[in-house]
Design goal:
Elements: H1 11-26, H2 32-44, H3 48-51, H4 116-125, H5 130-135, H6 138-147, H7 152-166
Length: 179
């Protein structure tokens, strides 16, 4: 007898069917080719009706595999574990509203909307604090702008541009600039 609507089965039901087929194979009811074909069909089965023909000519040792009851907690209960080589960080594949430009791999801190290369080049090519205005550090930008007629601001801005390009600069909110 079959149910009016086929019921989907899970891995536990497939494994139970394969175990039962293994018992029949061990008792000599199936030869190697039949066993291999039926095991492949059991792993490919999607419903309980797909498993029934596999045992049509074999005595059933127990009741048919029970259908699993879904858990009451929302699925999935926990994120699936991912393993990566320790030298490589996990890829950032999901968009996050709190990190629209991605996250820094080493710390996980969201990147700024500003770019490191642009800030450094602005400091080097227009050495009067423009790069610091770009990153949001208006106090440093004003100081470099006011000191540039004396020459101190120009040297300071030029050195600051090299530090920006070579270091790990942050914006006014403490987020690292995008590479």
């Amino acid at each position: 007898m079959s149910t009016p609507d086929p019921v989907r089965i899970g891995n536990s039901e497939r494994e139970a069917a394969v175990r039962e087929l293994g018992e029949h194979f061990a008792e000599g009811r199936l030869d190697t080719d039949e066993y291999d074909e039926r095991v492949a069909a059991a792993y490919a089965a999607r419903t309980d009706e797909d498993l029934a023909p596999l045992f049509k000519d074999l005595p059933r040792s127990g009741a048919p595999a029970a259908v699993a009851v879904p858990p009451s907690a929302p699925y999935p209960l926990a994120p699936y574990p991912r393993s990566y080589p320790p030298a490589y960080p996990a890829p950032n594949t999901a968009y996050s509203p709190d990190a629209p430009h991605g996250r820094e791999p080493a710390t996980g801190v969201p990147y700024s909307e500003r770019q490191k290369l642009i800030a450094g080049l602005l400091q080097l090519l227009i050495p009067c604090g423009i790069g610091r205005f770009y990153t949001g550090h208006t106090g440093l930008g004003v100081a470099q702008l006011l000191l540039s007629p004396l020459g101190i601001g120009l040297v300071w801005a030029w050195i600051d541009g090299i530090v920006i390009l070579a270091g790990r600069p942050v914006d006014r909110e403490g987020r690292p600039l995008r590479p």
